[in-house]
Design brief:
The chain starts with a helix and ends with a helix. The longest helix has 30 residues. By secondary structure, it is mainly α. It has one domain. A two-stranded parallel ribbon has the order 1-2. It has 13 helices and two strands. It is globular and about 60 Å long.
Length: 245
């Protein structure tokens, strides 16, 4: 036997099954988890979200046109005086309807979707009840809306009523808190959560910059949406604990 054959040894190769086990032990990247979840219950998500938005708008415009009592004009504060009218904020304002569709898209099971839908519906219902029994409006702005047709269209469709609390703000902060929670659960990087909050704050800011709301309405929306998100997430955590018992 040649000398080099006697002294040369080779490490055994890692079996194929061992390689596969090692791959399986690696955590699934966050973006793959999200991609997998988005496709689950696609029909329910695809029909349920626009149906919910449509029903909300029906109730919203009904209350807007038929309040129970005379309308109260909301006060202007120093915050409103600091923020100038900015028609360029219009795309951010209308982007809410994309933004609120993201949290349900990231939910994996039917019970989660139903609980989330009930929590969002409760938030909107609370705002509509306030609108009906205490109708409010923002003060008229000294602006020639004909110079800004895109914002003027919004003013014609969504009159300056149903002001306090701002449901635009309430649903934005509700969605923002839930999105942050879900991104954390997927192990998403910080930059993705930062983008979420920049978008959320941008929507809230746009309600003032387009003169759809005043600062008092915004604070009311933050309290309503933030409180509802906190309660719904507490209920979610409780449901997950009890299901493991």
């Amino acid at each position: 036997m040649p000398l080099h054959d006697r002294h040369t040894t080779h490490e055994p190769a890692l079996p194929h099954s061992g390689e596969q086990a090692l791959k399986n032990s690696q955590p699934t990247p966050w973006y793959r988890q999200i991609a997998a979840v988005i496709t689950q219950h696609g029909v329910l998500k695809g029909i349920g979200t626009p149906l919910f938005i449509g029903l909300f708008f029906g109730a919203y415009f009904y209350v807007l046109k038929a309040p129970a009592y005379p309308t109260t004009v909301m006060p202007v504060t120093w915050v409103d005086q600091m923020i100038s009218f900015q028609p360029s904020a219009m795309p951010l304002y209308v982007s809410l309807w994309v933004y609120v569709s993201l949290p349900p898209a990231l939910l994996a099971t039917r019970p989660e979707l139903y609980r989330y839908g009930m929590a969002m519906a409760g938030t909107c219902l609370a705002g509509l009840i306030v609108f009906y029994f205490w109708p409010t409006a923002v003060p008229p702005a000294d602006i020639d809306w004909a110079r800004y047709p895109e914002v003027g269209f919004l003013k014609n469709v969504d009159a300056a009523g149903n002001a306090f609390p701002s449901l635009h703000v309430a649903t934005a902060i509700f969605s923002g808190i839930w999105l942050d929670h879900l991104l954390r659960r997927f192990g998403a990087p910080r930059w993705s959560r930062l983008i979420n909050w920049i978008w959320c704050v941008g929507i809230i800011y746009s309600t003032l910059a387009t003169r759809q709301h005043v600062a008092v309405d915004v604070w009311g929306g933050l309290v309503l949406g933030g409180g509802a998100a906190w309660l719904s997430l507490r209920h979610r955590a409780y449901a997950e604990r009890t299901s493991r018992v």
